[in-house]
């Protein structure tokens, strides 16, 4: 019964959507890559039939839109066939980006939690700081990232830290918003009960507000860790970095290697998905530790 439910509720719907996306992808690849083949045939003074055109659109060296099998082949070549220490390995580039992501995520989480605690417990910070926190996210990261990189390079800071700071800038916001909501989630009757116990503010925080905020915290962390990866990739673009997924995307853009670009994008998506899964596992473990029902 459980197996039938899994097939009906998850495997079949997800599989259907994936097959539909792949089919549309192939159609789009054929449509977008066909003009190049027609132009090539016209320059050679020949005509090309549909049966000749279709295979060529799926095997171009620099296609407008690579076909799925081209992206899969590139991923296999740069993850399995290449040693992880090679500069052409996507695993190597992913680790370079991941190191900045994790550092920025850690700093953003700590900063977000501290700001949320201050906002919840201090009315002046609530009225003055919270609008600035929200306004900070209206500045496009593509505009502010080069300024951060240039300023930090001017004072002698380069490498991992500037990229991590960009990730921090992006990742602290969902943590602040989620933790403010979580720390304020206890109902008034629960706060009144703590007052009847003559609980101090610190006891109310650790025994009521903090446990109540855990679901909100981990939900925010799932968003924060994914956007932290985006920040690390964006941070690699204006530096002319030679390593990292951002550098891989930049090199592919310079030389028109669209297959390389798409492979790097899929690798970034896989890394983000893995990070979100890890946060989800930690979420379940913490809730079980706190006595939540499975």
TrEMBL record:
The chain crosses the membrane at residues 12-32, 92-120, 132-154, 216-241, 261-287. Pfam families: BPD_transp_1 (PF00528). It is found in: Cell membrane. It is a multi-pass membrane protein. Its main location: membrane. InterPro entries: MetI-like, MetI-like_sf. Keywords: Cell membrane, Membrane, Transmembrane, Transmembrane helix, Transport. Residues 94-283 form the ABC transmembrane type-1 domain. CDD domains: TM_PBP2. Belongs to the binding-protein-dependent transport system permease family. This is ABC transporter permease. It comes from Mycoplana ramosa.
């Amino acid at each position: 019964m459980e197996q039938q439910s899994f097939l009906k509720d998850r495997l079949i719907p997800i599989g259907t959507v994936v097959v539909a996306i792949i089919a549309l992808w192939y159609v789009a690849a054929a449509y977008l890559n066909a003009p190049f083949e027609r132009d090539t045939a016209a320059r050679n003074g020949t005509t090309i039939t549909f049966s000749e055109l279709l295979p060529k659109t799926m095997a171009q060296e620099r296609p407008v839109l690579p076909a799925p099998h081209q992206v899969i082949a590139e991923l296999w070549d740069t993850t399995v066939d290449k040693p992880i220490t090679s500069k052409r390995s996507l695993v190597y580039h992913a680790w370079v980006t991941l190191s900045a992501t994790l550092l920025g995520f850690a700093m953003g989480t700590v900063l977000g939690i501290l700001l949320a605690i201050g906002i919840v417990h201090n009315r002046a910070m609530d009225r003055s700081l919270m609008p600035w926190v929200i306004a900070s996210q209206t500045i496009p990261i593509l505009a502010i990232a080069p300024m951060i990189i240039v300023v930090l390079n001017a004072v002698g800071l380069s490498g991992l830290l500037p990229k991590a700071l960009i990730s921090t800038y992006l990742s602290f916001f969902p943590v602040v918003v989620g933790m403010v909501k979580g720390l304020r989630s206890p109902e008034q009757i629960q706060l009144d009960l703590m007052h009847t116990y003559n609980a101090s503010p610190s006891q109310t925080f650790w025994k009521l507000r903090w446990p109540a905020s855990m679901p909100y915290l981990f939900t925010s962390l799932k968003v924060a860790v994914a956007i932290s990866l985006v920040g690390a990739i964006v941070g690699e673009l204006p530096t002319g970095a030679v390593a990292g997924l951002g550098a891989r995307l930049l090199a592919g853009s310079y030389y028109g290697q669209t297959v390389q670009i798409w492979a790097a994008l899929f690798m970034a998506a896989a890394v983000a998905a893995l990070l979100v899964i890890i946060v989800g596992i930690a979420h379940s473990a913490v809730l079980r530790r706190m006595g939540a029902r499975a």
